[in-house]
Design brief:
about 1000 residues, rod-shaped, alpha/beta, 39 helices, about 15% strand
């Protein structure tokens, strides 16, 4: 079974060599109790360690079951110790932080035995040595004899072939020694027991064979294996087949020992629990770096969340806007700047003019283009990536939203608002310009209309607004009223909506400029939620404002009775909710005071498209439905000249245009004098004395009132009645105004009317039989739109990163189409905040880099603590190696310890950081009004713990490697 052939063992000590064994040859039987006697230093323990595979022989051979061990590798020796050898040591060598049961089970865990079987076999082994009732005690809670019994049970649990006992009774009293020897003797009936002892009496009494050693040689063997016995001749073995080799390899693989990582974790955890204070302090030291990084990340995350919210809110108000007719402002500025630089090629001895206006106009004309939005809309609708990048894609149309409100005094136009025009603050031309740039005006806080389309993203609206009464609109004919953060509504909105009487503001700006004392209602009005939720409006499609008379369509907005009927038949709009901006919202997506759904506009487009006047205009694209005349085209342009000759000479007409243009300003001045406006310049042909006399006759004291009355009276006056002298068709106000005029003013009025009449005659002569309008203008006037061809597209990115991706999508589109279909867009926000995120990230990275240094330092410290642990657990290393643990298993044990420490350090750092964010948020809230809330993202917390584990694991690699390389024999001698 076991045979030693000329075993020699030499130790090199400095320059000398010490021979511990000098050619020992012994053959052992399969079951016998062998005692090896000899004085200290004779080589007994060395021989035992070589037999047990803990030490290697220098020369000779150790045969196990007829197989030489000369070619054994480390894994073969580990398997041999685990499956064939059981060690019983003088000092018991139990792992102190493990229970009795765990100590016995440990050898089985290396064999890969299942947990249930492991538990069953360990309990059976302990019962066999009389310790079935001591399973859960720790070694330090037991007597020496009990601990030696546990060691024997551990040696027997794996059912080894050989039991090696090194002075098993050396630390026991006589009575206990006898008990242990009786136990070993009973075991020797089935196994080979080799015991090293100094007690010859015990050896003589219990051993079946005694071998004596002296100076590394066998000097006596009481019962050597009989060499004269002729063993039966064995038949030569057949050459192993490929299948036999494969089976043998599989068997060897099965016998290999391996400690699972969970077992390593259990060993390390139990060891760390015996040093709780040190483990906690070590973990805290390791957590300092984690705390620093976690706090930086928490503040950075809070700032980033705030920036994200600001981005989302801001971009909901400042979208990427693409209009049908657009100009790249950036390109215009760059071109003008370049032209200016190129033009500065002259000496500086004189002052030179700069052609800024000409360059601006030329550049504007060059950079202005028409976008094909119909094709681009189809491209956007087909793009699947756009949905994740945007809060909404809003399509706007040229269809006018005509909103009215009804009252006892009549109907009032609410949208488009005419309030500023009625006040005299802006002319109709300026109002139209504001309307054309309404989207930009609304964004910049300069819009005149209080009705605006809501963004089609309920989640974003929920974030930006609180519903303080009612609900959000769900149908096309439902709207919401928006108040500010103080539950207040601007009085401009109240006047525009008719909640305050707008007629009290008529002409107020003109009167103020004339020096009159004016008063504006400054009382604070209070409205209940129910009162505001009871508001009703009427939407009237533009075609419904026209009526067909004598074959042409006439604008009926001046007919009060018609307008009452049209408004009464309009679509009723109800206010169903009141919104207030959220306190943490930095911007709002609803630019007006009334927010309506997009489907209200689509409903209105359908109504316009299906109207009679629009259908008639579409059916007759060459005829102006408002005049019945043909539209002027390139083909019939020649006819215009021949027709105009029947009215006036074309050459004279051309020459007179400049004169009429020059006279128009003079006519306006005369009109101002007729109205009593003293601020007007002196008309051409009138002396200063005549002008002063005329103004004195008009009554200087009542100039402002008369001017206001004159302007209002002349606005709707039948001028033909003045020319014909028939005053019966005039209103009382108009008659009163005419009576107040002096003779000079009447003459001026008649002269002005004659000039106007002549101008109209000239226009009629020049127009001939063709309309002065065109098809597109008429369709625009009627509010005609095609859903597939929007007037503008507003793209609302989720954040700035998404905005860049959307720009890439637009660029991809531009690359895929021809020059005529390329899209120009306006980015109102531009790089307003995109750089802020980069700066925050850069600062965070720099701070994290500094704090990471402390994390690395703490990891190095943990590595040093782990090395100290290796030194403290050296004996445990020897014990583990003696029961079959490999070098890799030893490394795994200490790696597991660093993993535990790293995990505890990371978790402790995160917990402390979470607790610290509470006072940090309180301080931030106290010092600033910015709604920044420091918080550690869950993903960041997990990553930081993982980093802590990885760093401590790396720091523990060196100590674990040192542990794996320790000589098990030397390790077992360590106390």
């Amino acid at each position: 079974m076991l045979s030693l052939k000329d075993i020699k063992k030499d130790y090199v000590v400095g320059d000398s060599t010490v021979s511990a064994l000098k050619g020992v040859s012994i053959d052992f039987r399969e079951n016998e109790f062998v005692s090896i006697l000899g004085p200290s230093g004779c080589g007994k323990t060395t021989l035992l360690n070589i037999i047990g595979g803990l030490d290697r022989y220098t020369s000779g051979d150790l045969n196990i079951n007829g197989k030489s061990t000369k070619d054994f590798k480390d894994c073969d020796w580990d398997s041999y110790r685990n499956h064939s050898i059981g060690f019983v040591f003088q000092s018991y060598n139990l792992i102190p932080h493990q229970t009795v049961l765990s100590n016995v089970e440990l050898a089985l865990t290396l064999s890969g035995v299942s947990k249930s079987e492991r538990r069953e076999r360990a309990v059976k082994a302990l019962e066999q040595v009389g310790l079935g009732d001591q399973l859960h005690k720790k070694p330090n809670q037991m007597s020496g004899g009990q601990m030696q019994r546990v060691a024997i049970a551990r040696a027997l649990v794996n059912e080894p072939d050989i039991l090696l006992a090194d002075e098993p009774t050396g630390a026991l009293d006589t009575e206990t020694s006898v008990q242990i020897m009786e136990l070993l003797k009973s075991i020797s009936k089935d196994k080979l027991i080799i015991m090293v002892t100094h007690n010859p009496e015990l050896a003589m009494k219990y051993s079946s064979r005694i071998i004596k050693l002296l100076d590394g040689k066998v000097i006596d063997d009481s019962d050597p294996l009989d060499k004269n016995v002729v063993e039966p001749i064995k038949k030569p073995e057949k050459e192993p087949t490929k299948a036999d080799k494969k089976a043998a390899k599989k068997e060897r693989k099965k016998l290999k020992t391996s400690m699972s990582f969970l077992t390593a974790l259990s060993l390390s955890r139990n060891n760390l629990m015996t040093k709780k204070a040190r483990t906690l302090l070590t973990s805290f030291a390791g957590s300092i770096g984690i705390i620093g990084i976690a706090l930086i990340l928490s503040i950075s995350n809070g700032v980033q969340l705030y920036i994200d919210q600001v981005q989302s809110d801001t971009l909901s108000s400042y979208p990427l806007q693409i209009t049908k007719t657009t100009a790249s402002i950036g390109e215009i500025m760059n071109t003008m700047a370049k032209n200016h630089e190129d033009s500065a090629n002259h000496d500086k001895d004189k002052v030179y003019s700069q052609n800024a206006m000409g360059e601006m106009i030329n550049t504007l004309m060059e950079e202005t283009k028409v976008n094909n939005l119909e094709k681009f809309k189809k491209y956007l609708d087909d793009n699947s990536d756009l949905k994740d990048l945007t809060s909404d894609v809003q399509y706007t149309y040229a269809t006018t939203l005509n909103v009215f409100t009804e009252s006892d005094s009549g109907v009032m136009q609410v949208n488009p608002s005419t309030l500023l025009e009625d006040m005299g603050y802006m002319s109709s031309t300026q109002m139209e310009a504001m309307s054309m740039s309404g989207s930009m005006g609304g964004m910049m806080g300069m819009g005149t209309d209080v009705w605006s389309e809501m963004i089609d993203n309920e989640e974003l609206i929920d974030k930006q607004y609180d519903v303080i009464a009612g609900r959000l609109p769900e149908k096309y004919n439902e709207v919401v009223l928006v108040v500010d953060k103080n539950n207040e509504i601007n009085d401009y909105v109240l006047y525009s909506l008719g909640l305050l009487d707008p007629s009290s503001l008529n002409g107020i700006v003109r009167r103020a400029m004339a020096g009159e004392d004016i008063s504006v209602d400054s009382e604070q009005h209070v409205y209940t939620y129910d009162e505001l939720l009871d508001l009703k409006f009427k939407v009237v499609p533009t075609p419904d404002l026209y009526k067909k008379k004598d074959g042409v369509w006439e604008d009926m907005t001046g007919d009060e009775s018609y307008m009452k009927k049209a408004v009464a038949n309009g679509t009723e709009i109800s206010v169903v909710g009141i919104l207030r901006p959220d306190e943490d919202a930095s911007s709002a997506s609803i630019s007006g005071a009334i927010g309506y759904r997009h489907d209200l506009m689509t409903y209105l487009i359908d109504e316009v498209d299906n109207s009679e006047i629009v259908k008639e205009q579409i059916a007759n694209p060459d005829i102006d439905v408002f005049t019945g005349l043909k539209f002027k085209t390139d083909e019939n342009a020649a006819d215009t000249d021949s027709s105009s000759e029947t009215v006036s000479d074309s050459t004279a007409d051309t020459e007179s245009k400049a004169d009429k243009t020059a006279d128009s300003s003079d006519t306006d001045k005369k009109a101002g004098l007729v109205a009593g406006d003293s601020s007007m310049e002196i008309p051409e042909g009138m002396t200063e004395e005549q002008y002063k006399a005329l103004m004195e006759q008009s009554g200087a004291s009542d100039t402002g009132e008369l001017a206001d009355m004159g302007m209002n009276a002349m606005g709707s006056m039948d001028m033909s009645a003045i020319q014909g002298g028939d005053m019966s068709s005039l209103t009382e106000t108009q008659k009163k105004y005419i009576a107040s005029l002096s003779d000079e003013q009447m003459e001026l009025m008649k002269q002005m009317l004659k000039e106007q009449s002549d101008t109209n005659a000239d226009q009629l002569a020049n127009s001939g039989k063709y309309s002065t309008s065109n098809y597109d203008n008429n369709m625009k006037t009627l509010g005609y739109s095609v859903v597939e061809d929007p007037d503008s597209i507003n793209i609302y990115p989720v954040d700035f990163a998404s905005k860049e991706k959307i720009i890439d999508i637009i660029d991809d589109y531009n690359d895929s189409v021809g020059e005529e279909d390329k899209i120009e867009y306006t980015d109102y926000v531009g790089l307003m905040m995109s750089s802020i995120t980069s700066i925050i990230n850069a600062i965070s990275y720099v701070l994290i880099a500094f704090v990471a240094i402390s994390l690395v330092v703490s990891s190095i410290m943990i590595g040093i603590i782990t090395y100290i642990s290796v030194l403290e657990r050296t004996k445990e290393i020897g014990i583990l190696r003696s029961i079959g643990a490999s070098k890799r298993d030893i490394s795994r044990v200490f790696n597991a310890e660093t993993v535990i420490v790293g995990f505890v350090a990371g978790a402790l750092g995160i917990i402390i950081s979470y607790l610290l964010t509470i006072p940090i948020n309180m301080i931030i809230a106290h010092l600033t009004d910015v709604p920044i809330r420091a918080s550690i993202p869950v993903s960041a917390a997990v990553i930081l713990i993982a980093i802590s584990v990885c760093l401590t694991l790396i720091a523990g690699l060196f100590p674990s490697r040192v542990a794996a390389k320790k000589d098990p024999v030397i390790a077992l001698r360590t106390e």
